[in-house]
Amino acid sequence: MSARNVAVIVGSLRKESFNRKLANAVIAIAPDTLAMTIVPIGDLPLYNQDLETESPPVQWTAFRDAIRGVDALLFVTPEYNRSLPGGLKNAIDVGSRPSGKGVWSRKPAAVISVTPGALGAMAANLALRQTLVAVNVATMAGPEAFIGQAGTLFGDDGKLTNESTVDFLRKFLQAFEHWIERNGAQR
Fold first, then answer.
1. CATH tag for 4-49+57-183 (out of 3.30.70.20, 3.40.50.360, 3.30.70.3270, 3.40.50.970)
2. Model confidence over 150-163: pLDDT tens digits?
3. What is the 3-state secondary structure (H, E, C) of 111-172?
4. φ, ψ for residue 155 (rounded to 5)?
5. Which tens digit of pLDDT belongs to each residue from 13-72?
6. Contact 129, 111 (CB under 8 A)
7. Residues 6+ apart with CB under 8 A from 165
8. What distance in Å separates the CA atoms of residue 160 and residue 142, rounded to the nearest whole number?
9. Of 7, 64, 76, residue with least CA distance to 35
10. Cα–Cα distance measured from residue 91 to residue 64, given in angstroms and rounded to the nearest whole number
11. Which residue from 18, 132, 33 is spatially nearest to 73, judged by alpha carbons?
12. What is the three-class DSSP state of 180?
C-alpha cells in the first residue's frame, strides 16, 4: 500500500512557533505509511465572498487544490483568546467555499493543540473540532492531544527532546493512521 498523503495545517503563522516545531517533529517521526507535508496558510487573503468569482485569488485556488489532493488532515494549533487563531479559521473558511464545492468534506483528520501554558490549548482544540464538524471533517475523537508546557519540550535546535512526548506522539500517529484507514476514501 502506498503512503497516505496528509496535509499538516499549522495554526500559528510565526516561523519559530512551538506549533510549527511540533508539526515538524510529528512529520519527522511519522511512519512511512503517512506522507505528511505542511500546507501553509499565512498568505491566504481573508475570505470575502465578493472575491469568489471565476478568478478567485490565486492563493485560494492553490490552497484548495492542495487540500483537495490529500487523503487526510492534521491540524496543529495554538490557542488565541480561548479559541482558534484567526488565520486558521480563515483557512477553513476559504476551503469551505464556494458553497457546495468545499475541499474539507469527508476527509479524516486529527487535532493537536500546543501551548507554553499548562492546559495544552484545550479551548482551541475543542473550538477547532466544533468548526470542523460544520465542514463535514471526520475528526478523530481520541486520543486527544493537548500539549502543554511547550517551552520545555524543545532543544536549542528546535527539535523535540522530551521522550515521553515523543512516545505519546508516536501512539497518537498510530491511532491516526488507523482512523485514516477506517474513515478515508478507498483508493
1. 3.40.50.360
2. 999 999 999 999 99
3. EEEECCCCCCCHHHHHHHHHHHHHCCCEECCCCCEEECCHHHCECCCCCECCHHHHHHHHHH
4. -80, 180
5. 999 999 999 999 999 999 999 999 999 999 999 999 999 999 999 999 999 999 999 999
6. yes
7. 147, 153
8. 22
9. 7
10. 9
11. 132
12. helix
Q: How many CB atoms are located within 10 Å of the residue 129 CB?
A: 19
Number of helices (H), then strands (E), belonging to the chain: the values are 5, 6
Give the burial string for 56-85 (b: 16+ CB within 10 Å, else e).
bbeebeebbebbeebbbbbbbbbbbeebbb
Q: Which residues contact 166 (CB under 8 A, 6 or more apart)?
A: 25, 29, 160
